[in-house]
Amino acid sequence: MRIRTSLFASSLLLAACGPNPSGGPDRYDISKMDLKPLPAQVSNERHTGTFAAGSSLSTTATLKPLDPAPVKEVRLDTTHKIIEIAPGVKFSAWTFGDQVPGPTVRARVGDKIRFSMTNRSDEPVPGVQLTAAPMMHSMDFHAAMVSPQDKYRSVAPGQTITFEFTLNYPGVFMYHCGTPMILEHIASGMYGAVVVEPREGYPTKVDREYVVIQSEFYTKPDPAKRKVDGAPLYVLDGDRLRAAQPTYTVFNGVHNGMVRQPLAAKAGERLRLFVLNVGPSKTSSFHIVGTIFDRVWFEGNPDNQFRGMQTVLLGSSNSAIVEFMIPENGSYIMVDHHFANASQGAIGLISTSAKSDEKDIEHHNIEATATPSDPEEVKGKLDFESKCLACHTIGQGKKLGPDLAGVTKRRSDDWLAKWLKSPEKMLESDADAKAMLKEFGNIPMPNQSLSDAEIKQYIKYFRWIDAQSAAAAGPHAKH
Ligand SMILES: [Cu+2]
Fold first, then answer.
1. Is 457 left (phi over 0), alpha (psi -120 to 50) or beta?
2. pLDDT digits (tens, 9 = 90+) for 353-363
3. Which of 128, 426, 468, 472 has the most CB atoms less than 10 A away?
4. Which domains does the chain have, with CATH numbers?
5. Cα(293)–Cα(307) distance, integer angstroms
């Protein structure tokens, strides 16, 4: 009797979801789709004013709720502008909607997107005279089913293209510039996401929704040594680009951006992330430390469902919706589990404390979000985050190695320089180093092959940290 009931229940489920081979209604019935969009229009009219417009657009990681209008007017103009990939790293980028990644479009199956784009790559950026030369650009929506030769045409600076299409499949779709060299246009920042909900909405309820877009940057210092606001300008490194050797791999356009500004959540909540891997050339092994994906909808379509996953593998332009619980208070770490990519900046936090790790700030009096201003200190901080965080923390207690908050108080600059140059020599000859080795379970710190210039930057960064906490502590310092 038990068996019969559950068989009955599962056949009901089968009938209710997905294309049904036995002849039931197919929700992706081609004969019911709009596959006859009007031809694209190209004009010499230049749009002025805001670079991105439309009530379906979200410009940050927080995804706005669905706008119910069945026709979505979307404007994403292209610009050339300087963006900041990491603190102090100013990069000459090309954009949709004047930001990288471009704004996220949210719509529903059956909705029509009425798109327009003016190529404004020839407009000077206020206050900056350094942007790249004007350039042809185009728009390729993976969410559309249209003739690329018509809709994805390149338009010249000053021209406007408009076209419309109907959304036939749910998913999280990439959009990008399709003008040759496509690789260069994507690597310069021309991409974003379209979230298409199923016609009937998602089958689950969640408390918060965020968009996480992974992408690579390939940078080199400007050969002409130009500067922006006193900081060196970085430009696209074509050799690294073709060799698929990024300098930064990031979430939402910024190196460790969501470490400095974590996404908010509360214990007990259910979250939905819309995750897109742009590439252009690397895969992402998307994982969140501390939880399990209750549901994964590969490519953002609930028909492609996995349960209880630890990691989702995303090729270039693949996506997924992942849903999970925040089990208890803490900071849950989003990473590309290809750790070489994570060490280049593909790390972010979902945190239950708005000011992340409040306890530790109180303890060590360091603002978690504080960033030094001196370029050498900034370099030290970035290098520290990518090379040393595996074994050290600053103000969060010991890991494999000591907590480095206060290290400039217990060691001289000379000692630190010698240690960083050659820990193995120090462990042979220096009594303090030997004592430390003993305290850390006889695990020696591996030589990090640092240059003298890098060592100087680390020490400057450690000095800056200790100066911060001394200033914040004032006369009431506890230790
Ligand atoms: Cu382009």
1. alpha
2. 844 333 333 33
3. 426
4. 33-201 (2.60.40.420), 214-363 (2.60.40.420), 375-476 (1.10.760.10)
5. 7
Q: Report which of 397, 384, 391 is spatially closest to residue 443, judged by C-alpha positions.
A: 391
Which tokens go with 468? 């911060």
**Least reliable range by pLDDT among 250-264, 347-361, 397-411:** 347-361
Are β-strands 208-217 and 248-251 bridged in parallel, bridged antiparallel, or unpaired? antiparallel
The alpha carbon of 398 and the centre of ligand 1 are apart by a number of angstroms equal to 47
Distance in angstroms (rounded) separating the CA atoms of residues 236 and 115 = 29
Distance from the Cα of residue 424 to its chain's centroid: 38
For 151-200, how does the pLDDT look when each residue is reduced to its tens digit (9 = 90+)?
A: 999 999 999 999 999 999 999 999 999 999 999 999 999 999 999 999 99
Q: Are strands 331-336 and 270-279 parallel, antiparallel or unpaired?
A: unpaired
Separation of CA 448 and ligand 1 centre (Å): 40
Helices (H), ranges, 322-451 = 339-342, 358-364, 375-387, 407-410, 413-421, 423-429, 431-439
Residue 278 C-alpha to ligand 1 middle, in angstroms? 15
| Rounded distance from Cα 156 to ligand 1 centre (Å) | 10
Measured in Å, residue 336 CA sits from the centre of ligand 1 at 27
Model pTM above 0.70: no
Separation of CA 212 and ligand 1 centre (Å)? 22
- Cα of 137 to ligand 1 centre, how many Å? 4
Exposed, middle or buried by CB within 10 Å (0-12, 13-18, 19+), for 277? buried
Ligand 1 center to 93 CA (angstroms): 10
Cα of 185 from ligand 1 centre, angstroms: 5
- Ligand 1 midpoint to CA 65 (Å): 29
Q: How far is the CA of 183 from the centre of ligand 1 (A)?
A: 9
Displacement of CA 335 from its chain's centroid (Å):
10
Q: Token digits for 357?
A: 């790790």
Return all residues near 293 (Cβ < 8 A) that are at least 6 apart.
306, 308, 309, 310, 312, 322, 323, 324
- The Cα 40–Cα 37 span in angstroms is 9
